[in-house]
Design a protein that fits this description.
FAD-bd, TIM Barrel, EC 1.14.13.209, disordered C terminus, seven-stranded mixed beta sheet, 765 residues, FAD/NAD-bd_sf, alpha/beta, oxidoreductase, eight-stranded parallel beta barrel, globular
């Protein structure tokens, strides 16, 4: 493909695809430079459209208003607006207000954009396939590929754009009803075949979009795979007759489909650029497709206007849009997964279920929902059990004989600062400061049960009396100076990930000298050719390590720790038994999940027998390996079920770090869906971890029933008094966040400027 002419602004422009994104891009580019010659190809007729209504946010409308007031005014006259969301579940309807939606018919949107393009002199070619992308790129200065989720342009240059396309587990169909819902409506139907859901919203005074969605196996069991468009519409109308008031549904070339998430490594190639669904998709449950396409068009036109040459402009367009799209796709993925797992939430209390649904994408949170609808949010808080004036995070929780004054946990964080396994002054200050900072529970780093069980030479241990004395000193400080803060110990063994350098000297790199032998379930190195090949533990080795865990637990009890956590995650020894990727044993400790669980459960039982009965025990697990063939979400539920049956009081739900070639889906609160799944499947308390960074996130996760405790690491490194500051920022001063007496004078945010200016007394009109 020829490189774009860096010395010439694009005057001849080809647009492939006549959806909202392509049309709006053409209109903007022509309006910015009337000398441009722009041709748009659309394979369908002008009045052909799929789907019914489209939703645009106030943010997107603001961009349209600024860029093209004529289009904005035309849209404004057509929009249907509403504020409420109705959630109907098991015969009860809960309404949450203050959300602010605007929608109009897709066909009418296209008509308005057609009119705008024609008025600007853009050539619109309908019922016409665009010439091949290579021909267009040779004949035009710029080719805008807005040719949809199945983009032929993307396929023609797949080697360069490098698309990744993921199909998901639900089937859905776009339908319409000839009346207007008075709110955005979510309704759940529990049928003999499984759970189905309706998403409905008005787009005209007499019309609503209705999307019906269900898991693939439910769709098949209900016989939808054998029904045509009209029969599907009729059957959906029967299932959701209450929502529709007995009225029918109609289609428009509607068919059942599985949503496909499209991600491209690159969005431009030479003078060809992808926008809208050709570049990226995001699940319809957050109303993002048309919004993203229109915003792409705005950004592309602006970047071409702002930069002197096309290569720079296309690079700037991608740099600007990619982070925004990635954030939207993460939110859409969270929403999509929530609906895929809908059946696991159905038994929640009705208000908690509604709150969970509203906050499913993590874009709506407890704090902004409280601003939108304080009465609704207060009702959810009362149902949760928040004392008056108490944020959810400062509601107490009891585990056995231990009552935690709040739901914040300082997550275990390896400090790599021990000497011969002995924690020193650094640990006293580090853990003591976080205990003074107000968290309900402060956890040690992983404390190793033997010298060979250390990750690095700087890891702490609990296998000698000297180490126990040092830990007792720290526990005494926490209990004496931070009364009300619980202190927990995490016991673990590094397994095949041991004998490595301190993190800042080379994470997971073997020591230059002084390596010790490592052991694991199977003789598989963490990274072949880099890390040691571990020896597979025999019966004697298994027994010896089990007894090391029990001995460490006895010392931990004597030290005065309030809670003990068994580390069965992150690819360390016990985790290595659980994952099929790291356990290839042929004896009774390998093979089926039941067999892979056997040794970790033996260790748990040995520790539970030693650990005082009134003190709780938790287990940290990796709920997915983020790798093909590894632990699945279903496996994680069964692992948690087994530990709970053996007496675990809570499951600390982490993910990954089991194999070196993992591919995590990083993002805000990205691990919490796994905690959510375990909690709602088993009813066992869970600790959520993973990029939880704000007190608003904590409140949201708790109130939605996705977690009982939230563990935060990096925020507590940034601010040891994170919990107390969260209380101050929320105006809370109750027993869930008690400031140490010497610090009480700092319990309010220091003033940063004058606040003594005279207040206005008169208001003149």
């Amino acid at each position: 493909m020829p490189a774009p002419d860096a010395g010439r602004a694009p005057l001849r422009i080809a647009v492939i695809g006549g959806g909202p994104g392509g049309l709006y891009a053409a209109a903007l580019l022509k309006r910015l430079d009337p000398a441009r010659s722009i041709t748009l190809w659309e394979r369908n007729a002008p009045d052909d459209t799929f789907g019914f209504g489209v939703v645009l946010s106030d943010e997107t409308l603001g961009g349209i208003e600024h860029a093209d007031p004529a289009v904005y005014q035309a849209l404004r006259a057509e929009f249907v607006r509403w504020d409420d969301i109705d959630i109907v579940h098991r015969g009860r309807t809960l309404t949450s207000g203050g959300h602010g939606f605007a929608a109009l018919g897709r066909r009418r949107l296209l008509e308005l954009l057609h009119e705008r393009c024609r008025s600007l002199g853009i050539e619109l070619c309908f019922r016409a396939e665009a010439p091949p992308a290579a021909e267009l790129s040779a004949a035009y200065d710029l080719v805008v590929a807005a040719d949809g989720v199945h983009s032929p342009t993307r396929q023609a240059h797949a080697a360069h754009f490098a698309p990744h396309i993921t199909s998901h587990r639900c089937r859905y169909i776009w339908l319409a009803a000839d009346f207007a819902f008075d709110a955005f409506r979510f309704e759940i139907a529990e049928t003999d075949h499984g759970v189905m859901q309706l998403h409905g919203y008005p787009y005209a005074a007499d019309s609503s979009t209705v999307i019906v969605e269900m898991r693939e196996e439910v769709w098949s069991a209900a016989g939808f795979d054998a029904l045509d468009e009209q029969a599907s519409a009729d059957q959906c109308a029967k299932i959701f007759t209450d929502a529709l008031g007995g009225r029918p549904l109609r289609g428009n070339n509607s068919s059942w489909t599985a949503f496909r998430t499209v991600v491209n490594e690159r969005w431009s190639y030479g003078n060809t650029v992808l926008i809208g669904d050709a570049a990226h998709t995001a699940h319809f449950s957050i109303g993002s497709g048309t919004k993203l396409a229109v915003e792409d068009a705005l950004a592309l036109a602006a970047c071409i206007e702002e930069h002197p040459d096309l290569p720079t402009a296309l690079g700037a367009y991608e740099d600007e849009r990619r982070p925004v799209v990635a954030s939207t796709q993460r939110a859409a993925a969270a929403s999509l997964r929530w609906f895929e797992e809908l059946e696991h939430h159905l038994d929640q209390p009705v208000r908690q279920f509604a709150f969970n649904l509203l906050t499913r994408s993590r874009r709506v949170t407890h704090d902004n929902l409280r601003l939108r609808d304080p009465a609704f949010t207060s009702a959810v808080e009362r149902e949760f059990g928040c004392p008056p004036g108490t944020p959810p995070m400062f509601t107490p929780l009891r585990l056995r004989g231990l009552e935690l004054r709040n739901r914040v946990v300082v997550s275990p964080m390896d400090m790599y600062s021990a000497v011969d396994g002995v924690p020193g002054d650094f640990h006293l200050v580090h853990l003591g400061a976080r205990a003074l900072g107000g968290a309900g529970l402060v956890m040690t780093e992983m404390v190793c049960v033997s010298p060979e069980g250390r990750i690095t030479p700087g890891c702490a241990g609990l296998y000698t009396s000297e180490q126990a004395t040092a830990w007792r000193r720290i526990a005494d400080f926490v209990h004496q100076q931070a009364p009300g803060t619980a202190f927990g110990v995490q016991l673990g063994h590094s397994g095949r990930k041991g004998s490595t350098k301190l993190m800042w000297d080379g994470m997971d790199q073997p020591l230059d000298t002084g390596n010790w032998p490592v052991a694991a379930a199977s003789p598989l190195p963490y990274r072949p050719g880099v890390n040691q090949v571990p020896h597979a533990l025999d019966r004697a080795g298994l027994t010896a390590i089990r007894e090391q865990f029990a001995a460490a637990a006895r010392r931990a009890a004597d030290c005065g720790f309030d809670l003990l956590e068994l580390h069965c995650a992150h690819g360390y020894l016990l985790s290595g038994f659980l994952s099929p990727l790291t356990n290839q044993r042929a004896d009774g400790y390998g093979g089926s999940l039941t067999a892979r669980l056997r040794y970790p459960l033996e260790v748990f039982d040995a520790v539970r027998e030693i650990w005082p009965a009134e003190r709780p025990m938790t287990v940290r697990v990796s709920a997915t390996d983020w790798a093909e063939g590894g632990t699945s979400a279903e496996d994680a539920v069964e692992i948690a079920r087994a530990f709970a049956a053996h007496g675990a009081d809570a499951i600390d739900v982490s993910t990954g770090q089991v194999v070196a070639d993992e591919r995590p889906e990083f993002g805000r609160s990205y691990q919490t869906p796994y905690a959510d799944r375990i909690r709602n499947a088993l009813g066992v308390p869970v600790v959520a971890v993973g990029a939880i960074s704000s007190w608003d996130d904590v409140n949201s996760l708790l109130l939605a029933g996705r977690a009982d405790l939230c563990a935060l690491g990096r925020p507590h490194l940034y601010d040891p008094h994170w919990t107390l500051h969260a209380a101050a920022e929320q105006g809370y001063s109750g027993p869930g966040a008690s400031w140490p007496l010497p610090y009480r004078a700092g319990s309010r945010t220091p003033p940063t400027g004058r606040t003594d200016a005279p207040r206005p007394r008169l208001r003149l009109s």
